[in-house]
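Issue: copy button drops trailing tokens. Both records pasted manually instead:
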Amino acid sequence: MAAIPKKVVERYKKTVSKFQRVLKIAHDRDVNEADTVSIVQDMLAEVFGFEKYLDITSEYAIRGTYCDLAIKMDDKIQYLLEVKAIGMTLKTAHLQQAMNYAANHGVKWVVLTNAITWELYRMRFERPIDCDLVFSFNFLELNPRKVEDQQKLFVLSKRGIGKSVREDYYERVQSVNRFVIGAIVVSESIMNVIRRDIRKLAPGVKVENQEIEQILRNEVLKRDVIEGDEASKAMNRVRKMAKKPVKRATKPRITKPKTPDVPSMSLSDRLTSEFKQEV
């Protein structure tokens, strides 16, 4: 994951504690959904670094059909936000409208939040439409000095979007988890290694991969790691990986750098660019 700029970390230290106080007051007063949306807009601007009147839009909240807010930069929706009242428990069903809109318009990222709980989802464009929960966090429990908490905030931040942090974080979550590791352990290549080492330990003993797999599944690994939907997805991913040819490293060709053509910017473009820079 890309390094978080020091300036961004300092902003987290100043703003997270401020909004933790705001959220506690709002929760105690049980503010409605409209007020929660206003708080989320302030958080997106002050914590996550978006320009409130340029990057954050409610143009897709048409009679509650799609979503409450969206982050839109360079005429492209970066992610949709479905916001519920601060006292409401979030449910996957709350995502449905935003998911449908995201799938129909090629938007990969959806956020479900009640200002306290934040859930980030990555769309899977398949039939039926589905999504993966990338992470969730309770804003009241964040410690802006902890690297793990800083990373989650950075994934949702304006600077994080520019560095493709979301994709890197999602790829790690998808690859480094118990289901994928379990699928790798029971893959043919690993069982071949186990069988080879057993033969080294006891040269006269005959053992086949099928027997090794049964022991791994029944006596070594937990059942929930190798059974169920998540396990099946991981198994399919590992099988696809095993079929891919191994790429050999090649020496990079040395080419002379070209001097890029720098297009002239109009006054309006320069002013807009300066205004969009993160404070």
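Record 2 (pasted manually too):
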Amino acid sequence: MRKLHLLTELQVKNAKPAKGKFVDRLPDGGNLYLQVTRSLSEGFNRNWIFRYELDGKRHDLGLGPAHTVGLKAARAKAAELRMQLYDGIDPAQERKAIKAERKAKLAAEIKRLTFAQCWQAYHKVHARGWKHPKHRKQWESSMQTYALPVIGNLNVADIETAHVEKVLSPIWDKIPESASRIQNRIKLVLDYAIAGGYRGKDNPAARDLVKARLGKIKRGNGH
């Protein structure tokens, strides 16, 4: 069994490459090395390296600089990585998987958008083409009165037809023309979300889906 804990705190603090060498690696045992390199400022950089071989391929994993990760912490990190090797886990692949998971989670968080935020973004892009002030006012008023209080705070990825139904059911029969317009406006906002990748390809505000829940709309004099 290879001897562990070969280095002392003082050796770590004063470590430098041998004369004439640019880099040196001092073993602490158990796959842990202190890598020391000469810097351009004539000083020295000291970093911890976990070195192992798996399936005939050598890997060097950085564990952090010695001025941040102390000797005791570096040994603890190395012990964790050795346990992964004993369990048949490749530490390099495990680190890549964790990094990929973190990036995916961050990407998902970035893509979290509420219906209200999506509506504001849609409005900013498309309102430029609404030349008639009355049309702009109707859009804003209908969304603020009926849609936003019900689904405004929901993530657009989570909105289902049941949510759209909740917006429209109070006015579906009472003011059908307004209900029809609001249904279409919600659909357009969700189309915007779909195009931006903020939700899947389905649109829960599609007329056929809403009609399946609320019945055929009665045309009349709406508001």
